[in-house]
Amino acid sequence: MKIIELNKETKQNILEDLLKRSPNQYDEYAGVVSDILKDVKNRKDQALFDYTLRFDKAEITKDTIRVTEEEIEEAYKEVDPTLIEVIRKAIHNIETYHSKQKQYSWFDTTENGTILGQKITPISAVGVYVPGGKAAYPSSVLMNVIPAKVAGVSRIAMTTPPGKDGKVTPGTLVAAKEAGVTEIYKVGGAQAIAALAYGTESITKVDKIVGPGNIYVALAKKAVYGHVSIDSIAGPSEILVLADETANPRYVAADLLSQAEHDELASAILITNSKELAEKVSQEVDRFTSMLSRKEIIQKSLDNYGYLMVAQNMNEAIEAANEIASEHLEIITKDPFMVMTKIKNAGAIFIGEYSSEPLGDYMAGPNHILPTNGTAKFFSPLSVDDFVKKSSIISYSREALEPIYQDIVKFANSESLTAHANSIAVRFE
């Protein structure tokens, strides 16, 4: 991996390089996506069948587009029972964590008859997109579905592309069943997003779409936003490790590679105040990479978006980490909790040498659907909040309104909204 000195220029270059990976940079695909969305909106099911045959080489019909209970039972037979137990353990931890995020309606009252409050209502119907093939991750099914269940969403429709045999990956089906998905459809790509957003004969429209996907899925979600809600436009995975001379270079190297193996656009960055650590990490990265199954993907990722940055001191390193605003941030220093208090921008923060990023991917409980490409400066991890709506509650008695009604009339008239003013004044004629 490249070892470079951290300064204003190198930091800016890295920020610019990372932004190139954003789905917002791929507008040349937008025309294709727009055509697919329009086609599904007009031809509905038939468009889904045609695109599935064209892109996934699978033939589906109105009788086979929805996964049956028999297919789910078959999937259970194909998945290792010990893995099913692991999935159930993960579900327990994820449910426990997200249950603490749940908000409740509240009301404040006064003696003169004022009632103000906030009403929390779950979204009625949510669509979850799940990639297929090599990118089929049961863990992401859990992370998308469980917060919705905790929030109280009653209908969770999942779409995922089938294999050439017309079947869905068994692990995906088991995870969906265990997590509480109510219906599963064999359709992927931008056409699946269109079906969830607009509805077809077989798939009823939802109110919000969540879940990761390829560039076509990301651009489709971007295009339907406003017609339905979405979670975010997810970019490639990324990890940033903040470490000092006390860090174990083998641990740091292993953690960097845990994200580099996702795809060629993934980013892995170490920022340290120790050049000696950076050199040792570079050696360990080379040693690990030669042994790992996805070494070609890892190498391309590291060549394009892998950096070992040496800062003058830890404060400079922390400042750079806040500007990069990484999806995953690991802190492996002498006093990691002190460093954590200075972090302003990160999707998920992993503290200490035994809190490696895969712990968060699978088992700890916090969500692994996180903001990427610097959006941790203003976005948060997927949570129960993403699956509820908040309504304001306002109730005034005549006695409560009378002391302030003239103030409201004056305010409304100052904005030339005389009908607003009259709406209040008429009650005191």
Automatic annotation (TrEMBL):
Protein name per the record: Histidinol dehydrogenase
Binding site for substrate: S237, Q259, H262, H328, D361, E415, H420
GO biological process, one term: L-histidine biosynthetic process
NCBIfam families per the UniProt record, alphabetical: hisD
Domain of life where this protein originates: Bacteria
Listed EC numbers: 1.1.1.23
Cofactor list: Zn(2+)
